[in-house]
Design brief:
It is built from 3 helices and 15 strands. It has about 280 residues and is α+β, with helices and mostly antiparallel strands. The strands form 4 sheets. It has a 5-stranded antiparallel beta sheet with strand order 3-4-15-14-5, with no helix packed on it. Strands 8-7-6-9 form a 4-stranded antiparallel beta sheet, with no helix packed on it. Strands 12-11-10-13 form a 4-stranded antiparallel beta sheet, with no helix packed on it.
Length: about 280
């Protein structure tokens, strides 16, 4: 077998048998040498190098074909994955649409369609408009409107929302009204509302109504200034269909009155800082 001599990258002469397979490093070395006609003539294997070059060219074409085949397979796999993603997304959307149609279908078919029952007892129903300042709140049985506030612009605003009645009012007072908190009725259940507490040595009052026989028919009082407080609620008087409660605080300043000819007070709102700065009400018509 005829052998050819090539020069490797480190300057040594290497023998390559004619027709033998070459690794990639030797191939690259051969190509780098034959590009220069000077090197081609210098080492004296002008005719003998042709079979080697043909072997290298054949090997390169073989690798190129393999790479092209591999690239085609990768493209096909990517297309399959893309199709699977689209199919999965379509299936998910279809499942969501079917789930959305279950409840309306159950209501239409009635008791023949079984429903999953939650074994845990339901939580107490939330207030109809807790934490909102909407002027009108419509419910299935009544309409609720917001009335007030009476007092000044100071303090931090609060709104207990509207419920189904008033069971108890806790307040404190001295030369003005301090703290105020209410226990409401929610469909026959006691529901303690938020506590609007202010610091200080005040006289505490607990007003317990005989709900549902007893209810509030009017709220009146005075608003006025104190040192460090431009306008606050100085006093409150609460009148029910059975008795008059108060006055609490000091009746000095500007009087206000909220008589209720039709409807019921079902929630309190206002603002508080160091004192009760203002007060308003939710009225169910």
């Amino acid at each position: 077998m005829q052998e050819q001599m090539i020069k490797t990258h480190d300057g040594r002469l290497s023998e390559v048998p004619e027709g033998s397979k070459l690794d990639s490093d030797v191939e690259e070395e051969i190509y780098s040498q034959v590009l220069s006609s000077e090197r081609y003539e210098k080492y004296g294997f002008k005719r003998g190098i042709d079979p080697v070059l043909r072997q290298v060219s054949k090997a390169r074409k073989s690798r190129g074909s393999g790479c092209e085949k591999l690239q085609n397979e990768v493209k096909e796999n990517k297309c399959r994955m893309s199709d699977m993603e689209i199919l999965t997304k379509q299936q998910h959307e279809l499942i969501q649409k079917l789930l959305q149609q279950i409840n309306p279908l159950s209501d239409h078919l009635g008791p023949s369609v079984p429903r999953r029952e939650d074994p845990s007892p339901p939580p107490p129903p939330p207030p109809a408009s807790a934490g909102t300042n909407n002027l009108h709140t419509s419910t299935a049985k009544s309409q609720t409107i917001v009335v007030g506030n009476w007092g000044g612009p100071g303090g931090t605003g609060w709104d207990d929302g509207s419920y189904t009645g008033i069971r108890e009012i806790d307040l404190s007072h001295k030369d003005a009204i301090g703290s105020l908190s209410v226990i409401y009725d929610v469909n026959g259940t006691h529901f303690p509302g938020p506590k609007h507490i202010v610091p200080g040595a005040y006289t505490k009052e607990k007003i317990v109504l005989q709900f549902p026989q007893e209810f509030i028919v009017s709220v009146s009082g005075y608003t006025g200034s104190l040192p460090g407080h431009p306008v606050v609620v100085r006093s409150l008087t609460i009148k029910t269909n059975k008795r008059t409660l108060g006055p609490y605080g000091v009746e000095q300043g500007t009087p206000f009155s909220f008589p209720i000819a039709n409807g019921l007070i079902v929630g309190f709102k206002g603002s508080s800082g160091d004192l009760l700065d203002s007060i308003g009400f939710h009225l169910s018509l």
